[in-house]
Amino acid sequence: MPSTSVPGTAPLLVLKGLRRLHVGPVDLDVAAGECVSIMGASGAGKSVLLRAVADLDPHEGDAWLGGAACSAMPAPLWRRRVTYVAAESGWWADTVAAHFAPGVDLTALLPRVGLAPDLAGAPVARCSTGERQRLALLRALQPDNRVLLLDEPTSGLDEEARALVEQLLRQRLAEGAGLLLVTHDAAQAQRLAHRRYTLADGALQAEASRPTADALALEAGPR
Ligand SMILES: Nc1ncnc2c1ncn2[C@@H]1O[C@H](COP(=O)(O)OP(=O)(O)OP(=O)(O)O)[C@@H](O)[C@H]1O
């Protein structure tokens, strides 16, 4: 089903005819500062779709970022700009710090998602699942990142850590990033997403577009 982003704004990310395995063809636009959520049964193909958007697997169709086609861009550049954050990410070095660029101030960054600053020097192998999940999100926040493809970003987290991650995502939206959010948490989709979809039978089915819970709280004003 074709879908358009916020009226009057040029889309940041455009997907046309994207097809991989049993998923698609998918047409979808995401505007700058917009969060689009995708729910769906286990095995529906949500991760398959996000990985195709990140150009991590062979697929049909194409994607555009600010008018530039994925097919015309070197894959590493596309993936820095349109970045897949897996539920369980891969790690290539021993320590946490070795996965970040030398200039990144990890002592300031880690507490933003509830992680202790001294985790920077820890071996990744010693980090818990929830710690690795948050580290993978921080790792994706490179200067040239424009779109985050989030695969169940808070599935392993307690309430406090979940709230911190959602706060970080709201800030990325305020900075003009686009978010494609795969989640099993309907309340999270309601809180964050400007448009919500369900993936079923390989196709995105739109739910009624409503203001996010955040927007409604803003309209209601201070309590
Ligand atoms: N490379 C592949 N080759 C063949 N089948 C695959 C491949 N990758 C995934 N699949 C299959 O595609 C289906 C969808 O997988 P996917 O991981 O996208 O599901 P999902 O909707 O993200 O599920 P969950 O909510 O459980 O994470 C699964 O049946 C999976 O086995």
From TrEMBL:
CDD domains: ABC_ATPase (cd00267)
Protein name: ATP-binding cassette domain-containing protein
Keywords carried by this UniProt record: ATP-binding, Cell membrane, Membrane, Nucleotide-binding
Gene3D superfamilies (UniProt xref): P-loop containing nucleotide triphosphate hydrolases (3.40.50.300)
Transmembrane segments: none
ABC transporter domain mapped to chain residues: 1-220
Highest taxon of source: Bacteria
PROSITE patterns: ABC_TRANSPORTER_2 (PS50893)
GO molecular function: ATP binding
Matches recorded under SMART domains: AAA
